[in-house]
Amino acid sequence: MHSFIPPDRLLLGPGPSNVPPRVLAALARPTIGHLDPRFVAMMDEVKALLQRTFRTRNRLTLPISAPGSAGMEACFVNLVEPGDTVIVCRNGVFGGRMRENVIRVGAECVLVEDAFGQPVDPAKAEAALKANPGAKALAFVHAETSTGARSDAELLCRLAREHGALSIVDSVTGLGGIPVEVDAWGADAVYSGSQKCLSAPPGLSPVSFSERALDVLRQRRAPVQSWFLDLGLVMAYWSGDGGRAYHHTAPINMLYALHEALLILHEEGLEASWARHQATHLRLCDALAAIGLDLLVPEHARLPQLNTVRIPEGVDDAGTRRRLLGEFGIEIGAGLGELAGKVWRIGLMGHGSRAEHVDRVVGALSTVLDR
Amino acid sequence: MHSFIPPDRLLLGPGPSNVPPRVLAALARPTIGHLDPRFVAMMDEVKALLQRTFRTRNRLTLPISAPGSAGMEACFVNLVEPGDTVIVCRNGVFGGRMRENVIRVGAECVLVEDAFGQPVDPAKAEAALKANPGAKALAFVHAETSTGARSDAELLCRLAREHGALSIVDSVTGLGGIPVEVDAWGADAVYSGSQKCLSAPPGLSPVSFSERALDVLRQRRAPVQSWFLDLGLVMAYWSGDGGRAYHHTAPINMLYALHEALLILHEEGLEASWARHQATHLRLCDALAAIGLDLLVPEHARLPQLNTVRIPEGVDDAGTRRRLLGEFGIEIGAGLGELAGKVWRIGLMGHGSRAEHVDRVVGALSTVLDR
């Protein structure tokens, strides 16, 4: 066995996206201690940068030391208790995973279903809230990584609040690429991932909890079933009040990388990043149309950073992706769940959302499909 | 805010330890996709390297995508169900954390207590096994990071097996620095961490489960309460059978780093690494004795990689550590739990276990203490 030298890849799948050299350089800086005062000061900057990114003043805004699926689990295990009812909107694979989390907490899950590729229908969510008074939370995916559909998070959070339910929002693929307005929406628990529009490596899951969510956490009857994800304990390490209580060893170098990635994002500016994602997306739509390829998601609900392309009749799904990877060094994503074999997923996320990447992937697709 | 440039530190605390340049270079290589065939081939190498490191042929041998405390939790949530009885040996902070995990799974915890700084007393563990027939598991800490005590893992695993209980072994600080013989011991579930004697950055937790543990996992009545840590699902991504099922996005760059760190370990050889840790430890013991400092742990139970030094009467604990860090760039660890203020912890782990580090830290201590 030898040192692993990864091949050159243009990552245009559903994430990870390409990590810029500045972030890789930060990642490789010497490891220091997780209680070192210099490191602790950097943690404070990471929190402040995440607050700016989530557009929130929430005190509990920090990166969970594990990938996005652990961020999802952190939201459910901290806010939901056995016997609670949670309404989960499922319009893709990640809504299904939310349901799995609710069940494993011992709560009852009420499903609101929409077709894969469609946004969550707020009327159905509202009907479910009315039919289930006392529901603990309404959970939905803002940016469905499996389908490319964007749901109206502002409206869904408002509906939850009007019915006395918490909102739990998956924006793993949203944050940095489209508006995520935690305070303006009044969202209660939002989680994201480092490896999508933030362009850091995978392995961290930024989360933000509202004061209302913190109250629920404080008033729990039972302890949080996960020790590792118990945000009461995690906060004692991340907050400055009365010194840092050791909880687990933070992933030091990954936090260097997230810090640098957030600096880059805010050097560009959040709004500028959103606009760039949108412009690149429109270029992709035009280029795909020019070679006769259609998108799955209706125009009004498309995520600019994740584009699901219908695989034309008779085309070899896996063979096409294999040729893109092998001959062009381009990774695109396969369909997931019920969309397997039916769509490709083209991600234009963070650092990767650039006109030349659109030209490269559509050029390569056009060659492989001979269009 | 600016890019974070960490200060120069010699990390001689309880972990993280200094990460060698080759591992940092691996960490910084370009991120590729978690389903990329080249990455998947590297994962197979990581598994094989971990099997060699744990001295096991266990199929379920892989790194959990989160720090050691998540590795601990993975063992308990996968193997223990509500209503089970688990015997936990507590001779330090991490035994206490095991108890916390058992409770949060909804199982009954029987404690076997030994003083902080002492190894687990096998006679007490055996008595507890006899008094609790049908106990699901005996859990203990092989290498207590909070005290520097080493327990007789081989004997404790045998006692567990003789009484029909699984053994759950914390070797976060052990692996790579002292013998961990998963197959020879017949250990059922062992977890470790990347940032101690493996000299990779913190953020990954290698685990290994025996076939007996896999049987228990397969025969569970209830689903694993954690979706993220459900090893049935995690294995479907890590094992080659029938293709890789997407579970969560693996922390790609951290796995590059672990791969490189394991290569370095096996270039030196496991036995050579153990011998080097022992030799460096003996040098430290001599040097500390020469300036009149005592170790907490009795000689026969000392971990060579983690040395707990009694703080002399009248010496300012925090002030001493602050001076070591500020004036000498050396981090040592504070006491944890009931040992806070009573001991320092000097780690000589992995890449950090070198004669010159002993000389530097004892020289600095001698200057600060004016001995």
Please describe what this structure looks like.
The structure is a homodimer of 371-residue chains. Chain A has 371 residues and is of the alpha/beta class. Chain A folds into two domains: 10-15 and 270-369, Aspartate Aminotransferase, domain 1 (Alpha-Beta Complex), CATH 3.90.1150.10; 21-265, Aspartate Aminotransferase, domain 2 (3-Layer(aba) Sandwich), CATH 3.40.640.10. Chain A has helices spanning 21-27, 37-54, 68-79, 93-104, 122-131, 153-162, 182-185, 211-218, 231-238, 252-268, 270-290, 317-328, 355-369, and strands at residues 10-12, 60-64, 85-90, 108-113, 137-141, 166-170, 189-191, 205-209, 306-310, 330-334, 343-347. In chain A, the strands form two sheets. In chain A, strands 2-8-7-6-5-3-4 form a seven-stranded mixed beta sheet, with helices on both faces. In chain A, strands 1-10-11-9 form a four-stranded mixed beta sheet. Chains A and B meet through α1, α2, α3, α4 and α10 of A and α1, α2, α3, α4 and α10 of B.
Mean pLDDT of chain A: 97
Question: What is the tally of beta strands of chain A?
Answer: 11
CATH superfamily of the largest domain in chain A: Type I PLP-dependent aspartate aminotransferase-like (Major domain)
**Which class do the helix and strand fractions of chain A yield?**
alpha/beta
Helix content of chain A: 40-55%
Query: What fraction of residues of chain A sit in β-strands?
Result: 5-15%
Largest sheet composition of chain A? 7 strands, mixed
Largest interface: A-B, 77 and 77 residues
Report the C-alpha radius of gyration of chain A, rounded: 20 Å
Strand order of the largest sheet of chain A: 2-8-7-6-5-3-4
Oligomer type: homodimer
Q: Given the C-alpha coordinates, what overall shape of chain A results? A: globular
Q: Termini separation of chain A (Å)? A: 42 Å
Q: How many domains make up the 3D coordinates of chain A? A: 2
CATH class of the largest domain in chain A: Alpha Beta
**Which stretches of chain A of 5+ consecutive residues score pLDDT under 50?**
none
Order of helices and strands of chain A: EHHEHEHEHEHEHEEHHHHEHEEH
Question: At the third CATH level, what is the topology name of the largest domain in chain A?
Answer: Aspartate Aminotransferase, domain 2
> Helix segment count of chain A?
13
Question: What is the second-level CATH architecture of the largest domain in chain A?
Answer: 3-Layer(aba) Sandwich
